[in-house]
Amino acid sequence: MTERSDTPGRPDLRALAPNEAQRERVVGAVMGGLAGRPQRPPERSDAVLEAVAFLPSRWVATVAAAIIILSAAVVLLTRDPPPSPEVVITAWADRQHVPTNGELLSAFLGYTP
Questions:
Q1: pTM greater than the 0.70 cutoff
Q2: Residue ranges per domain, the chain?
């Protein structure tokens, strides 16, 4: 690639191009060779199904999902609701507290820092 060539330009390889009969002969030989070879069975690509097959049974998965959903519901329902802005502003006034921007956002928009 880095060698210098004495003859400029590309070599003309059109004389090596096969004609239609030669092309058909090569393609026919390849196709004939393929027809005589044994075919491999297709590879299985159902890894997800194999992973699910290791589960003991469907009812175990259903019970596990129900437990996860119930525990999430209990966590969400037992949280204390945030105080109303009136309660927060009254507490600030009683303590003579000047709220920061984050505290104002938390009180009025429900933003939690």
A1: no
A2: 57-109
